Amino acid sequence: MKCPKCDNLHVRTERRPDGNSTCRDCNFTSPTHEFAQHGDIYKVESFTVAETEVDDGSKYRKRIPSELVDVYDILKAFEVTNPAIQHAVKKLLAGGKRGHKDIIQDLEEAKWSIGRAIQLES
Questions:
Q1: Higher-confidence residue: 7 or 118?
Q2: Closest CA to 27 of 47, 46, 11, 49
Q3: What is the model's pLDDT at position 67?
Q4: How far apart are CA 61 and CA 91, in angstroms?
Q5: Phi, psi angle pair for 43, to nearest 5°
Q6: d(Cα 25, Cα 23) in Å, to the nearest integer?
Q7: Is 96 left (phi over 0), alpha (psi -120 to 50) or beta?
Q8: What is the pTM of this model?
Q9: In 29, 50, 56, 72, which residue has its Cα 20 to 30 A from 62's Cα atom?
Q10: Burial of 88 from C-beta contacts in 10 A (0-12 / 13-18 / 19+)
Q11: Regarding beta strands 29-31 and 11-13, do their DSSP bridges make them parallel or antiparallel, or are they unpaired?
């Protein structure tokens, strides 16, 4: 996918049906369908995370090259590949904040997902 303004391929796309795309070079932002009309929608450059940890050596801190991140960026930064762990982390990070479930229900679902993750890892 190319930027319709500068033709660059460094494009970041929001992960939602009506999301926007932003060129990393010229910062042009527009609905993703406008970028798709300009180039191949299947050639979106993937989100990249710095290979090295922060200088203090902490395994719990990662550099993320963006000011706005979502849970999927966090999961990728920490290389979480088990889908049950991914689900649990999502529930824990946004527990009770999405409007249709309360914190207790989200915690119960995260607990179930952790149990499933243990099964998958065994």
A1: 118
A2: 11
A3: 63
A4: 20
A5: -110, 45
A6: 5
A7: left
A8: 0.52
A9: 29
A10: buried
A11: unpaired
Separation between Cα atoms, residue 113 and residue 122, nearest integer Å: 14
Integer Cα distance of 91 and 30 in angstroms: 30
Strand boundaries in the chain, DSSP class E: 11-13, 20-23, 29-31
Q: In what order do the strands lie in the sheet with 20-23?
A: 11-13, 20-23, 29-31
Determine the Cα–Cα distance for residues 112 and 69; give it in Å rounded to an integer. 26
Give dist(CA 38, CA 65) in Å, integer: 25
Sequence letter at residue 3: C
If you search the block for the tokens 């993703």, which residue do you land on? Answer: 32
Any idea how long the chain is?
122
How wide is the angle at C-alpha 34 spanned by C-alphas 30 and 36, nearest 5°? 125
**Mean pLDDT across the chain, nearest whole number?**
76
Confidence check: pLDDT of 84 > 60: yes
* Residues 29 and 47: beta-carbon distance below 8 Å: no
State how far the Cα of 18 lies from the Cα of 32, in Å rounded to an integer.
8
Higher pLDDT pick, 71 / 43: 71
Average pLDDT (31-43) is 54
